[in-house]
Specification:
This protein has 465 residues and is α/β, with parallel strands linked by helices. Helices cover 59% and strands 10% of the residues. The longest helix has 36 residues, at 294-329.
Length: 465
């Protein structure tokens, strides 16, 4: 009952999105690192070149967010790696070859292309000068240097094919390990804040920062062949799109991918331009790519951000003020209500956003739901406090006039409590404006989008937008 208004808003939002994306529209997803965005942009441009309609939902967090979005149908296709599929998505199973992997995916309604042509495996790396001075060439050599600080990407820290298994295989023992964003790790290793980090073997930063890739001498990391995962119903729904995707099979070697990553990450060439140039050179697919101006992008993100804040805050006000009144009228209920909304406020915002994905998918609805829940505490608490702090003599006067409880609430109590209620709404608005930036991780847009892109590209200008 409490969430009825919010659910209605989310359903309307979802229906609007569904009507905009009909059965022939293909939604392409990508993870929040440069290579995935480039591959996602390639798929989008190929589909459009073939006459299809494609939407690119870029930088949608990590593996599990994209995989679950694919299973739900929120995205139709996204770039992935065979090692990630075998060791993370389908962890616990053993696959003898790619066909066995493909069969396991088919049971879940997912198909996989052949490899795109390159292997982007995990690796560990450190500054060449430091590695040479300490005589470190292999991952096994790290076992002799427990003083080194490892800065590992947050996903790598918890993956089945990441740090836990690597530490066990190499018996690395206790180590100083910090979790941080993959793109920020390169700046941290350059600054000397960390000495070792996990790498993707096609990262352009390896050469740029002068890093030594440590030899995986015990053969822990599997092959991570780049592929596209797509929903099996695309074969019957949009067979021409599947054919367009397969044009990329075997076309991208490791040198080409490193070069594209370098153009996008180091030379600041837009991802769409990098993808278009490769398609023109390798597949003779020539498309004119236009990029929006800073003002156009800023206006677009501003509108998205305002919609997220306005919808979630409006729903919270409609629900929270009656809850505050109920807490005021029922002192025993007050402890339960204030405690419940207080507990919600302690849930980390990113975790709450991810919790909403199984219920509402990706995009605006889960972000609105999470922001709504964060807005409840300030409004409920201030409504309750404002009503409770009204002078008893004023209440007695209202009763002496013969006013009914509803009339007293409407004419006397709520107007007197209004300054406190407005203060709670202001607090909720401030919380929403800041927290809404995290919505970009699940495809909700807003100001979080240029922040994520700015972090990925090490572009302070984008972050400052």
């Amino acid at each position: 009952m409490i969430l009825r208004c919010l659910v209605l808003v989310c359903l309307i939002w979802s229906a609007a999105v569904a009507s905009a994306n009909d059965a022939t529209t293909v939604v392409v997803g990508s993870k929040k690192f440069t290579e995935s965005v480039i591959l996602g942009e390639m798929a989008t441009q190929l589909i459009r070149d073939g006459g299809g309609v494609a939407v690119h939902r870029r930088e949608l967090g990590g593996t599990q967010i994209l995989w679950n979005a694919l299973l739900r149908g929120d995205v139709d296709v996204y770039p992935e790696y065979t090692g990630t599929v075998a060791e993370e998505i389908l962890a616990g199973q053993r696959f003898s070859d790619a066909e066995a992997l493909r069969a396991a995916l088919k049971q879940r309604g997912v198909s996989m292309t052949e490899t795109l042509g390159f292997n982007n495996t995990y690796a560990l790396g450190m500054k060449e000068e430091l590695a040479g001075r300490l005589g470190i060439r292999t991952i096994s050599d790290l076992g002799r240097h427990g003083e080194l600080v490892l800065g590992l990407s947050n996903e790598f820290l918890d993956r089945a094919d990441g740090w836990p298994g690597l530490r066990e295989r190499y018996q690395l023992g206790p180590a100083q390990v910090r979790g941080l964003d993959h793109d920020l790790a390169y700046r941290a290793i350059e600054a000397g804040d960390i000495q070792v980090t996990d790498l993707y073997s096609t990262d352009a930063e390896i050469r740029y920062y002068g890093l030594r890739v440590l030899d995986d001498d015990l053969g822990y990391f599997p092959a991570y062949r780049a592929v596209f995962l797509f929903r099996e119903d695309m074969v019957s729904r949009v067979p021409e799109v599947v054919a367009m995707l397969r044009r990329l099979e075997g076309q991208i070697d490791e040198t080409a991918m490193v070069g594209m990553n370098a153009r996008a990450k180091l030379e600041r060439v837009p991802d769409a331009v990098v993808s278009a140039d490769f398609l023109a050179q390798r597949l003779q697919v020539r498309r004119t790519v236009s990029t929006d101006t800073v003002l156009v992008r800023l206006a677009h993100h501003t509108i998205e951000h305002l919609v997220l804040v306005a919808v979630s805050l409006s729903a919270a006000v409609v629900i929270a003020i009656p809850l505050g009144v109920a807490a005021y009228r029922r002192p025993r209920l007050a402890h339960i209500l204030l405690g419940a909304v207080g507990v919600v406020q302690t849930i980390p915002s990113l975790a709450l956003l991810v919790f909403m994905i199984p219920l509402l998918g990706i995009g605006g609805p889960p972000a609105v739901a999470a922001l709504f829940l964060y807005s409840l505490l300030p409004v409920v608490r201030n409504t309750h406090a404002g009503l409770r702090d009204i002078s008893p003599s004023l209440r007695e006067s209202a009763e002496a006039l013969g006013l009914s409880p509803w009339a007293r609430l409407r004419l006397i109590e709520l107007p007197l409590a209004l300054p406190s209620i407005l203060a709670g709404i202001k607090t909720a608005a401030v919380i929403n404006v800041g927290t809404a930036t995290l919505g970009a991780v699940i495809g909700a847009g807003g100001y979080g989008q240029p922040i994520l892109t700015g972090i990925r590209l090490d572009d302070v200008g984008l972050i400052l937008q």
